């Protein structure tokens, strides 16, 4: 397996996660039964962690530093809000519901559209406006935030992670946000 | 089932204009659509772009007001067809993802045409060209994983393998060596004319696409790679357009263009897997039948000849997107080291070729090599997708695999 470079700038890191999210959507769509519950659980956790890290670290930086940043970030937050509602509805429904496949597809296209808009209107401009040092620092901040809320439990932290990443999406996001804020 | 487009009536021209709602086509799914559906969309876009520009050039040299008027009316419809076709591509696809689909078109369309081409000299031209597009796919796939952290097999599926072809590095030939000998319009099979027009149009669209989207990238290696491969696409346009007999009259060429559009829309209607896209191919076929009828009338009136004298009595078997892995592996094994000299093919690096290589590379590695070096540096190895096994040419097998064996 190819390994990602150790020191990543924030844009590279987030684009990499967009790609992982896209792969997870494929995995959920292609798997069945328990494997599907498991893949969907990982998708929800990855989305929760990724979006929260963006909201807490990347969007504020874009809002204050990019020309027109405030409007750009508002648009992205609206998309995120809508996606979260769709995701919460999917969670309520569960992977065994006959409507699940069709609704998952709607969410998949919405999330991909949102990710592309971030890349085109926000991330590429961040990369343009920020120095390499700033990009790496932001990347480190996102990584640190995500390490506090790992999507794959690490040995010895299972119970804490389980607690953090359990329950409905909304509660999960709130807990991740608290942790990120305390760490900064 | 045989189909002679000259025997079918299409939609009358004055009923072909579409309103905004009709032009607002629903794009295909960015992740779930058949890779070959995207290939058919990209191909037909290239065909419509050629139709439009051919008509513009005709307009520029045509003094007859009545003919100019008819060309303008048909051209407007062709512009709308181009919009309906190209807008089937999803906005979520990145430029690089669309690029990878363009190269999949170049590989599997050219490979199909080479398999069907009856004339050995023309067949050689397609076999020569396809190994270069095959290499471009591999270079862009490495760039894609570096920039977007995703594997190109997600886009092309298991339909097309990804590994080195004739290295892009040695594709930079002296421009005079890109000219081919044309077919003879009076002796060649009608199918050969359609093949040349199809591949020329596809390569021309690829050239235009790269020359316009390349500078949208910020990553230096991406900008440079689009420049380099964009220049090869220019060579390919020269290569394929010179296969066409320059002695064909404008009327004859117009008829060939319209006939080819009928052929391709009919082909794709027969082979399309997406019902919504298929409906567009069918609609456009019915429009093209009328464009063809009008072109045939012009030819009879102004050329004093029957279009039947230059066309096939029925459409050839449908142009089909399907895997060509075995053909490509055979060509890799036998033709990877070919270059051109004049209108022929040779194995030795002749003086004119060497001079061009020195001039363009300036003693340095070109972007197409740098992209692989950079990928190896970042990911520990280059990106390939070769489900059918290692590269057929031993010296083109992965460095890393060789290292492990030694």
From TrEMBL, chain A:
It comes from Actinomadura rudentiformis. InterPro entries: Hemerythrin-like (IPR012312). Residues 10-120 form the Hemerythrin-like domain. CDD domains: Hr-like. Pfam families: Hemerythrin (PF01814). This is Hemerythrin domain-containing protein. It comes from the Bacteria.
Automatic annotation (TrEMBL), chain B:
Residues 357-388, 394-406 have a biased composition (Basic and acidic residues). Residues 357-406 are annotated as: Disordered. InterPro entries: Ferritin-like_SF. This is Ferritin-like domain-containing protein. It comes from Actinomadura rudentiformis.
